[in-house]
Amino acid sequence: MPEGDLGPRPVVPRRHRAVADAETLVEMGVLEPQRKPPPDVPAEPPAGEAANLAALNAALAQAGVPKGAADDEAVAELAKLDAETVQAITEWVKHEKPPKPEK
User: Fold this and answer.
1) Which of 1, 30, 67, 90 has a CB 3.0–4.6 Å from the CB of 71, allowing a cystine?
2) Average pLDDT by consecutive 10-residue portion of the chain (103 residues)?
3) In this predicted structure, what is the pLDDT of residue 93?
4) To 10 degrees, the CA torsion angle through 78, 80, 86, 89?
5) pTM of the model
6) pLDDT for position 43
């Protein structure tokens, strides 16, 4: 074995002429068109969750809290909690904080 041929040699991939993808077979009339699955449509939140989401957003707006994209996701997760917990959160957000004493 010569010293220059120690590593693997690059090989060109071979394709069989009789092999085709499904779209080509449909175009040729060999295969029936396949049904495509419907796109994933996000489900509407339950009525209670939508009410919780509205209450949380209103409480944040009333408190003057700016929201970002990550905040929207967090609020949506909080809206999945039960109504009593959401009520406690909204009251906590609306609660005015006492002014800090000046030094």
Assistant:
1) 67
2) 70 72 84 82 78 91 85 89 91 78 72
3) 86
4) -10
5) 0.51
6) 72
* Alpha-carbon span 47 to 52, nearest angstrom: 9
In terms of phi and psi (left: phi > 0; alpha: psi -120 to 50; beta: otherwise), the region of 29 is left
- Continuous H helices in the chain: 22-28, 47-63, 69-78, 83-94
- Residue at token pair 């406690």: 88
- Rounded distance between C-alpha atoms, residue 85 and residue 96, angstroms: 19
From the list 9, 90, 92, the residue with the least C-alpha distance to 53 is: 90
How far is 75 from 78, CA to CA, in rounded Å? 5
Concatenated DSSP letters of 74-96: HHHHHTTS-HHHHHHHHHHHHSP
pLDDT at residue number 2: 57
Cβ pair 94, 59 in contact under 8 A: yes
Rg of the chain over all Cα atoms, to the nearest angstrom: 31
